[in-house]
C-alpha cells in the first residue's frame, strides 16, 4: 500500500519533467525561483505532420516530360479490345474496381507490386531539378563513391547549400501520388492523426539552455497515446504521451548527440529507427546516418524540422509495394519505381555486389511540445505495491 | 384571482375506472374559455378559440437613437430605425411602448435585475435576488390556464435552465426548458394526442399515473403539523402542483377536439457541427435554438397545449458571444469604445440588431400559423420586454417594451405608445385587461397603477 | 488553555467535567422546524446510494436561490412549481422503471411473488416497507404502506404483471412530498417542559445530510428508532461511525460543491478559438481536481483547512495536464497525485483551473469576478452589487485604449461610486491575472507584462501564491467555513442568537489547528444542530429571502 508519505513520490526523471514544465512557461525566470537552480532540463516534442521533402515548382518544371503513368494505365494499354471488354464486365468496371485485375498483370498472374521484377515496365521518369531539400549525407562535394556510398548526382539545397543528397526526391518527384496534392502523403498524415499509429516522440535531454547549448542528447521514441487535439482538430501542445515500452523496455530508443544554436537543434549522424504508419502499412523505418535539424519556437510550444538519412531500400519498397488499391487513384507503378530505386540508390553498398542498399532521403516535419512519459511513471497500476516495486526495479536498473 | 382550487377526487373511483375499461376517462369540460363573447370560433368545430398569453425576453435593451424614431405622443404607426428594421414589416402585428419609467422609491437599481422584475411583477426588488410578487404571466395563467395540458411552457434559447423570468416568488421559480430536443419530447412526444387523428384510445398507463397522483394527494393530511405557516404554504403549493399534473392527465384521457391550426412541428434537427455544441452562448447557437424552439412553442400554443408561454431569447446579462471575441455582449456594452461617427458601440449594436432579427423571426413564426379566419397572432398577446433602456449606463427609465398580437380582438396594433414618464406597469395592467382580467390596479408604491392604456384597448 | 488546566485532574473527574463542558456550550434557540426540498445533488445521492450509480436520474430541477452562500439553505425555502412536479413525476417513473426492470428487479425485491402475473400483497409489502423506510427516512405508518400496496395491486392486475405493480407503487413514493421534502418533525421535549425537540428520525436526517450529503443509512435509522439520538453517547457513537465512513468524502464534496458554487461548472463554456485547449472534459476534471485536493488535504491527510490556500499538492488528469502544461502518467485516463514544485506560480485552490475558469468570461479573465468570488465564497464577505448609474465613458476613451486589466480597472479608482467595492475585489483579483480565463498561465497581456501584485486587507503580495498565503492567514477564511458548515448543517441562515455558538465553534476550530473533521464533529455532536424553535404560525412578508427578513 502506498502510505501518506509516499503518495507524492516521484522518480528523479519526473522531477526533471516538472522543472521543464515550469521553464516552459515563457517569461518565468528560473534563476529567480528559490530552490530550483537551473539544472539540465528536458524538452519534448511529438511529430505531427511529416512529408517526404519535395521541392515542388509551380509548373512542375522538375518533371519536364510530365508525370509517370500508373500500373492501371500500363495494364490497360497492354490489353486487346476483347480482353478489355472481358476483364471489365464490358467496360462497366471503373478503375478502382479493376484494381485486382490490374495489379495481377504478371505473366502468371503475379501481383506486380509484390513481385516487381516479373514485368519490365517503361522506365520511371525522374526529377530533373537541380535543387532539393536535404542534407549532405556522404560528405562529398560531387557524389563520388565512398566506402559508404555509390556514385550519384548531388543537388543544391533549396537554401543554397551545396552537396545535398536526396535521391528519394529524384525517385518520387514525378510520381503524382507522392506529391503534396497526391494521395499518399496526405493519407499517411491523416491516418496517423486519426489512429495514433507511427507517432514519433522526440526527447531532448541534458538541456542547460534552450536557445544555445553545445551538448544535448536527442532520443526518438514511439508514443502509445494518440494525439491530443483541440476542439478545432488542431494538435495541442504540452500534452503527455507515454512511450512504447513493453516490460519497461522502450521499443524505439535511438539517440543522437546534438547542439542547440540560436534555438536551432542540429545533431550528429547516427542510425535511427522510427515508427512509421501510412496507407495501411505499419513498419519500422530505419534511417541510416540520420541527422536532425529542429527549429524550436521561442515559446518552446512548436518546432519545425527535417530528418535526413539513408532510407533502407527494402523497407521503402515494402511500403511502396503495399500501397494497395489507392495506388490506382494516386497513380504510381511499383515495377518502374523498383527498377529506378535500385539504379539510383546511393548509400550502403552491398559488400558482395557493390550495389547500394539504401537511398538518401529527407523528411520535413512539424511538431508540438509534448511531455514524454517514461515507463516508471506510466506504469502506475491500480495496485500500489506493484507500482512501487516497478519504480524500485527501474531505479535499480539505472544504477 | 382564481387560484387553482384543488378539488377532492375519489381515488377509489379512479381505481375502479382503471380496472374496468381502458376507454373510460374522467369527464371534464373541454375548454372553459372566458372569451366566448369575443373569441371567434374554430372553423371545424365551432368551439371558441382561446386567447393565450406569452412573453418574450431579451437582454440589454436597445441602442438609443438607433432603434426607434421617438414620438411626442401616442399614435398609429411606428418608425423603426436600423436596429429594429426587421420589425418594420411586422408593425401591423405589434405595438411599441416607449417613455415608460421605473420609479424605485429609493431602492437600488440592481443592475440587469431590477428592470425585469419591476416590469413583470409591478414591484421593485429589495435585493439582487428578490422576486417580490408573482410575474404577470402567472397572474394571467391563474385566471386562464386551468384546463390545458401544461400550465405554462417556459423556454430559453440560451441553454441555461435557471434563466426563466417567470416566478411566483423568490423561491418559487421553475426551470426553463433549455433544449429544443427536450422541449419537443415534452410537448410533442409520445404523450401528445394529435387532435386531428381519427382514432383515440386512452392509454391505461395514464389512468395508473392518475391514480398515483391522487394517492399522493391523500398525503396532504398526514404531513407533520409542527411546520410553520410559510412551510405549510409551500406544501400547499406542492399539492396544487400535483393537482395541476392530475388535470394534465385528465385532459390527456379525453379525445381532443379537432383543431385545424394544429400540426406536428418539425422535430429539431441539427447539422454535424451543431451536434457538438447543442447548448451554449455562441450567438448563432442561440439564434438556432431560438428558431427551433419558437416553432415548437408556437405550435404548442396552436395545439392548445398551454395558454401561457414564456420565451427567453437572451439572458438579462446577455452572455451571448461571437466566436473568437474576448468580449461578451454584456461586456461590450460597457467596455467597447463607441464609434466616433455613429456614436454607438459597433459590436454591441450588432448584437442588438441580431436580437431584433430573432424577435422578428419569433413574430413571423406565430403569424405563419393559420387559425380561424386569420393567424395565431389574432388570438395571442405577447408581452416583450427587457431590463434596461440603455445597457451601457444601466438606465431603466424609458425601458422599451412591445406587445405582439391582438388578444382575440381586445388590443389594437400598429401603435407607438408614448409613456411620458408613467410607470411601466401600465403596459402590464393593459395586458391583464386585454386578457380578460379585471384588476383595479397593479403594482406597489410608485410602480402602482390603475390606468391601463386606453388608446390600445378595444 | 482549558485543557492545560485540566490536565492534572484524574480521569474519571475529567470525563465528568468534559461532559459538563459539553453542556456548557452556548445554547441556541434553533430555527423553526424546517421543510427542506431535496436539492439536486441530494436527490441524486439518495438515488445512487439506494439503487446504485447505474440508475440514471435525468431531469431538470427547479433552480434554488443561493442563501447565505449555499443552495442547500435556499432549499429550505424552495417551492415546487407545476413544471417542477412534472419533472419529479417523470424522474420517479423513470427510476421506478429502471429499478423494477427485468434485469434489475432481483437486486431490489427481497422476495418472489407467488404468481408473476398478479398482485402479491405480502411480497409487495416487504418491498415497500424496506425501500420506503430508506426513501422516507423513517418507518412508514400504516397509510404509507397501504397506499402503494393498493396502487400496486390495481396496477398488477391491470397489466397482468406483479412488477408493474411494484413500479407503480415505487413511482408514487418517489413523487411523494415525504420523499421530496426533508420535513423536520418536532415533538414535545420530555426533559424541557413546554419546549420542542426534533424527533429521532429528523435528527438522523440532519446528521446524514450534513456529514454524508445523503439520506441516513440503515444503522442510523435504527439508532433513531431506538432513541439513541436523544442521548449524547448514542449521538457520539453514530457521529464517530459517520466520520470514519468513506461516505464522509462524498459528504464533504457535496458541501464544497455548494460552498464554491460549482454547479455552474456543468455548463462552463469557453471560446474555442481563444482557448482551444479548454473543453468540457477540462471543466469536469477541473472541478474534480479541486474536490480531490480538498478531501485529500482535509480527510486523508487530516490537514489544516487554511493550507488549502497554499497547498502545492493536488491531482492531475490527462485533460488537465494540457492546461497546466505538466506531464501526466496516464494521458488516456485516470488521476495521479501531483505536486507543484516550489516556486511554481500555482499554489492553493484559488490558482486551480476550476476557480480561475469559473470566475472569468468565456474569452477573457475577470479580476473583478475573481475578487468578488474570493471575498464572498471563501471569506463570507458580501460585496454590494454595482450601482446602476455608472458612467462607463471612461472605459471607452478611444484615445487611451487600455491594454491590461489593471489599466482598465484603474478607472474604478477615479469613480467614487465604484472605488468602494472595487478596492475590495480588484487588488486580489488582479493577483490572479497571470492565470488566463481558461486557467492557463501567462505572463503578458497584449504584450504588456502583467503586474500581479496586490493586497488583501493590508497584507501585500506580489503574485497569486502570495495572495494564497494572505488568504490562508486571513482570520475570515476559517471563520467563513465555520459559518457555512453550521448553516449547511441546520439549513438556515445563522441568526444573531447563533453568534455565541459560532464563536465557540471557531475557537475550538482554531484550538484543533483547523482540522475540519474536528469541526464537523463539534457541530454534529452539539445541541445546536438539533435545536428547534416553535413554528411561526403566520407568514412573514412573502417572497423576501431569508436574509432580508433578518
Query: What portion of residues of chain C belong to β-strands?
Result: 5-15%
Distance between the termini of chain B: 23 Å
How many individual β-strands of chain B? Answer: 12
Q: Average pLDDT across residues of chain B?
A: 85
On the 0-100 scale, what is the average pLDDT of chain C? 88
Secondary structure tally, helices of chain C? 25
Strand content of chain B: 5-15%
Going by helix content, strand content and strand pairing, the class of chain B is alpha/beta
Oligomerization status of the protein chains:
heterotrimer
Major protein interface: B-C, 93 and 89 residues
**Into which percent range does the helicity of residues of chain C fall?**
40-55%
Name the overall outline of chain B.
Answer: globular
**What percent of residues of chain B adopt helix (DSSP H or I)?**
25-40%
Task: Walk across the major sheet of chain B and give the strand order.
Answer: 2-12-3-11-10-1-7-4
Query: Could you give the count of β-strands of chain C?
Result: 10
Enumerate the strands of the largest sheet of chain C in spatial order, edge to edge or round the barrel.
Answer: 1-2
Counted by DSSP, the helix tally of chain B is: 11
Structure description:
The complex is a heterotrimer of chains A (399), B (458) and C (550). With 399 residues, chain A is of the alpha+beta class. Chain A has helices at 12-24, 71-77, 81-87, 99-103, 167-172, 184-195, 313-321, 326-330, 334-344, 375-378, 384-398; strands spanning 41-52, 131-132, 156-157, 200-207, 213-222, 239-242, 254-261, 264-267, 270-278, 281-296, 302-312, 347-349, 356-373. In chain A, strand 9 and strand 10 (281-296) form a beta hairpin. In chain A, helix 7 packs antiparallel against helix 9 (334-344). The radius of gyration of chain A is 24 Å and the shape is globular. The model of chain A is unreliable at 1-37 and 377-399 (pLDDT under 50). Helices cover 30% and strands 10% of the residues of chain B. Chain B is built from eleven helices and twelve strands. Chain B is globular, with a radius of gyration of 22 Å. The model of chain B is unreliable at 1-44 (pLDDT under 50). By secondary structure, chain C is mainly α. Chain C contains 25 helices and ten strands. Chain C has helices at residues 2-6, 11-23, 40-51, 71-74, 82-99, 105-108, 121-136, 142-159, 162-174, 177-180, 200-211, 218-225, 232-244, 247-259, 280-300, 318-324, 353-358, 367-378, 405-413, 416-429, 464-473, 476-490, 499-511, 516-524, 546-549; strands at 35-37, 181-183, 186-188, 196-198, 313-316, 336-339, 444-445, 448-449, 454-456, 459-461. The radius of gyration of chain C is 26 Å and the shape is globular. The interface between B and C is large, with 93 and 89 residues.
